[in-house]
Amino acid sequence: MKRVTGIGGIFIKAKDPDTLRDWYRRHLGLEIGEWGGVAFRWNDAGNPGGSGTTVWSVFADSSTYFAPSTAPFMVNYRVDDLHALLGALRSEGCAVEDKVDESEYGKFGWVVDPEGNKIELWQPPAGQ
C-alpha cells in the first residue's frame, strides 16, 4: 500500500495572524485569500488530468485545531487510501485519532508522532 503521496498543506500558528500573513504577502508575494491562506495548484505524472493543491495557512495562536500537539505548526500529507492507512497505523501501534472527517473536500484523519506533533492525513477527492 502506498502511504504518503505528497504534501497537502502547511499550517502555522501565530500570535498575530494578520501581521504574519501580511509579512508573507509583502515579502514573499503570497496572494493570501480571505480565508487566511494560499492554495498552490499543480499537477504531476500521478494526476496528469487533474489539479493537485497544496495549502499554506495561518491559524490563530489560540486555535485548538492542532491539539493535542503543542507545536506551532502542523503538516498535512496527501494519501491515496485514508482508511487503509489509518488501519495500518493503528496496527503498528501509532496514536491515531478515532475521528475521521469526510466532505466534498476529501477525507481527513490524524495521527500523533512520537514527538507529540499532530499530523493531518488527507485523501483528496477524485481528480485532485
UniProtKB/TrEMBL annotation:
Transmembrane region(s): none
Record's keyword terms, sorted: Lyase
Record bears the keyword Lyase: yes
Residues of the signal peptide: none
Superkingdom: Bacteria
InterPro entries referenced in this protein's UniProt entry, alphabetically: Anthracycline_SecMetBiosynth (IPR052164), Glyas_Bleomycin-R_OHBP_Dase (IPR029068), Glyoxalase_6 (IPR041581), VOC_core (IPR037523)
Domain VOC span(s) in chain numbering: 6-124
GO molecular function: lyase activity
UniProt-listed SUPFAM superfamilies: Glyoxalase/Bleomycin resistance protein/Dihydroxybiphenyl dioxygenase (SSF54593)
Name of the protein described by the UniProt record: Putative enzyme related to lactoylglutathione lyase
